[in-house]
Specification:
Layout (H helix, E strand, L loop, with lengths): L1 H35 L5 H5 L3 H14 L5 H13 L7
GO molecular function: SNARE binding
GO biological process, one term: retrograde vesicle-mediated transport, Golgi to endoplasmic reticulum
């Protein structure tokens, strides 16, 4: 009986740790997105809303066309990371 309780408790803490790590990863991604595109709706971006992601990335690229090259490189990395083709 004690072994069963230990097993259940161990499984609970493994699952809890896994969920905590997932939340941390999502928070890190959200911070990175906010750093690149302030005011972005990170929940929509991270949920995979392709239309929103595409529109946001293209709007960002258009807004910084005349900015420094490194900003465009960040935008292109962002588009690539989320599977957005510039030909969509």
């Amino acid at each position: 009986v004690i072994e069963d309780a230990d097993s259940v408790q161990s499984a609970f803490w493994r699952e809890w740790k896994s969920k905590l790590e997932e939340q941390k990863n999502l928070a890190d991604q959200a911070r990175a997105l906010e750093e690149i595109i302030p005011g972005i709706e990170t929940a929509r971006f991270l949920s995979g809303d392709k239309g929103y992601v595409r529109d946001t990335v293209f709007a960002f690229i258009d807004s910084v066309r005349h900015e420094k090259r490194h900003i465009l490189q960040n935008a292109l990395k962002l588009a690539d990371a989320y599977g957005i083709s510039q030909f969509e």
